[in-house]
């Protein structure tokens, strides 16, 4: 990246590597940059969609009732969800 910071393929590859490592916020920033550099690059756009979907799942999971308290107590998320659904 240091040698070719304007290389869109490198930016996309870095974004995907960050995604795979779980650094979703950083990945999203790189993938957005890759798409901005070449809006016609379907791979970069798809990578950004994957990243956005994973971020959305993570957000939904963290905001579901009972999940955060279950994780603190060591209860499984499935059990917490079942309790919440039964209400």
Structural account:
The structure is a single chain. This protein is mainly alpha-helical. Residues 75-87 have low confidence and may be disordered. The protein starts with 7 loop residues before the first helix and ends with a helix. The protein is elongated and about 50 Å long. It has one domain. The chain contains 5 helices and no strands. α1 runs antiparallel to α2 (24-37). The protein has helices at 8-21, 24-37, 42-63, 67-73, 77-86. The longest helix has 22 residues, at 42-63.
> How would you describe the shape?
elongated
Q: Which structural class should the secondary elements be placed in?
A: mainly alpha
Largest sheet: none
Number of helices: 5
Work out the strand percent: under 5%
Series of secondary-structure elements, N-terminal to C-terminal: HHHHH
Distance between the termini: 52 Å
Radius of gyration: 18 Å
Number of domains: 1
Total count of strands? 0
Quaternary state of this entry equals single chain
Mean pLDDT: 83
């Amino acid at each position: 990246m240091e040698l070719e910071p304007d290389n869109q393929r490198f930016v996309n590859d870095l974004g995907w590597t960050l995604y795979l490592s779980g650094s979703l916020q950083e990945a999203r920033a790189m993938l957005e940059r890759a798409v901005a550099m070449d809006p016609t690059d379907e791979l970069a756009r798809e990578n950004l969609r994957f990243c956005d979907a994973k971020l959305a799942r993570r957000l939904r999971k963290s905001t579901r009732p009972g999940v955060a308290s279950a994780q603190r107590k060591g209860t499984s998320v499935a059990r917490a969800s079942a309790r919440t659904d039964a209400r």
